[in-house]
Every structure is written in structure tokens, then in C-alpha cells.
Amino acid sequence: GSKTTERAIKSALNQTYSNIEVVIVDATINKADILQKTKDKRVIYVKNKTDSNPIKTGVKTATGEYISFLYEADT
Predict the structure, then answer these.
(1) Does residue 61 contact residue 44 with C-beta atoms inside 8 Å?
(2) Which residue in 30, 18, 22, 35 sits closest to 68, CA to CA?
């Protein structure tokens, strides 16, 4: 849910290596909610289209040399 996503974002942003971006690709989480709570320019939210693969969307959006994925399953 939203709390788990929020904790994951904060964890990524608090790493000692700060030259990162956090790309959130999601079809269900409210963009305004996430961006308001983080208020960090390194967080990028991309709405995933229903016909689009979220991994491809994330890779196309990311600008970094290395990419790591975190999945949140619906429960």
C-alpha cells in the first residue's frame, strides 16, 4: 500500500550515495499523495498505461547508468 511505498522511497533517498533518482511507475497510487509526502526533486512519478509494461516504462524514464527494481504486489 501507500505506507509501504512511502517507506521504500524514504529508504532510497536516505542512502549515503545521493546522486540518484527514484522513478515510480504505478497505475493505482495517487501521484499527488506521493510527491507531497516526499517533496524531493529526485522522485519522478510516471503513470503506467494499462497496455504498457511498467518495467519498460521505468527504463525509458530513468536517466541513470544503473537501474534497480522494487516491486510491490497487491495483497
Answers:
(1) yes
(2) 22
Other beta carbons within 10 angstroms of residue 25's beta carbon come to 22
End-to-end CA distance of the chain: 9
Contact 47, 28 (CB under 8 A): no
Question: What number of CA atoms fall less than 13 Å from residue 46's CA on the CB side?
Answer: 20
Distance CA 15, CA 20 (A): 9
| Contact between residue 39 and residue 22 where contact means Cβ atoms under 8 Å apart | no
Strand spans (E) along the chain: 22-26, 43-47
Assign 72 a pLDDT band (cuts: 50, 70, 90): low
Q: What is the pLDDT of residue 48?
A: 77
